[in-house]
Amino acid sequence: MEPLKLNTFKDLYTTLKSNIPWLDHLLLGLLVALEGWYIDKKVDSTIDAAISQYEAQESLTDNAPIYSESDNGEMRLRAPWVKE
Asked: What pTM does this model have?
């Protein structure tokens, strides 16, 4: 099992890696923690954006249709999201 999942963090580790084992291990631990934090934040923001987009679409369909009557008595029905 590889500790780093994203190629960005793998590349960063290979770039910053030295030949001192304890320092490499410390760097790897730090990058694993940062990667976990980054993945969590990215997932949260993606889910929040998808939920807000879904709620915006739902609010459009929840509105009632708009009824209007012209001067000659003609009734009109218009969807609330259609602009005149």
From this structure: 0.64
